[in-house]
Amino acid sequence: MSGKRSLIRSGTTVDQMVRAIADRIVTGYLRPGEKLDESSLAARFEVSRTPVREALGQLSAIGLVERRPNRGAIVAMVTQEYLASMFESMAELEAICARFSAERMTAGERRSLELEHQASARLVQLRAEEDYEYFNTEFHTRLYRGAHNTHIYDLTVMTRSRLAPFRRAQFMLPGRLAKSWQEHDVIVTAIMRGDAAAAGKAARDHVSIVSEASAVFAAADAEAPKVIRSARR
Q1: Three-state DSSP class for 51?
Q2: Model's pTM, two decimal places?
Q3: Per the domain annotation, does 173 fall within a domain?
Q4: What's 145's domain CATH number?
Q5: Count of alpha carbons within 13 Å of 115, Cβ hemisphere only?
Q6: Is residue 31 pLDDT above 70, yes or no?
């Protein structure tokens, strides 16, 4: 949800609050150093302060919010360098998952991956940004599970959670849905062929492109040149 979209209100869950606030941070609607007042957020989301505290705690855990003792929470500052280092790690983890998936996925897992990927082309045609974003998360999760390595799965999911708001932001860029699908297609083709090296390279290239797209978007409306206005796809 960008800063220009309305906030979720009545019936808001903690996860929805985390998503809404994170997206507003990444898109620059909330800026580094800006105070996040619990009472104001509770009133805006029409919830009590307890879920707000939980949401801020989760945002702090992923690096988008800084919680200061006895002074409340503020939007954190994420440098381009730190964001790049996270994406670099993500690219290597996803490359491992794609490589292992090409070697270890069952026939059923491969069929499901290909069918879901082909079905997602319709979302691109419809420019269904939110639906495609959901599919994108599921697509990558299939790769993590297809690696059949619990430790790598846990590491990859943990890293993805820190990058989720930035990865979501990329889909607001013109033409990004179609490019994302094409990049997925290269990964799927390699996995279906059992070509581990090609699958790993395709996944690494894909995340590197996502990194560039996300950084460009996040920095687009920034007044501070080298800083990604963020508390954070």
Answers
A1: helix
A2: 0.77
A3: yes
A4: 1.20.120.530
A5: 6
A6: yes
What is the rounded CA–CA span in Å between residue 121 and residue 113? 13
Residues 184 and 95 in one domain: yes
Question: pLDDT tens for residues 77-89?
Answer: 877 888 888 999 9
CA distances, 180 to each of 21, 51, 93, 132, 168 (Å): 25, 34, 18, 10, 12
CB contact set of 187 (below 8 Å; sequence gap of 6+) = 98, 143, 199, 202, 203, 206
Here the tokens at position 229 are 């206005």
Give the residue from 31, 47, 75 where a domain finishes: 75
Q: Do 118 and 165 have their domain in common?
A: yes
pLDDT digits (tens, 9 = 90+) for 122-154: 999 999 988 999 999 999 999 999 999 999 999
User: Do the beta carbons of residue 195 and residue 98 sit within 8 Å?
Assistant: no
Note the helical H segments in 149-224: 150-169, 176-193, 196-219
Same domain (yes/no): 69, 114: no
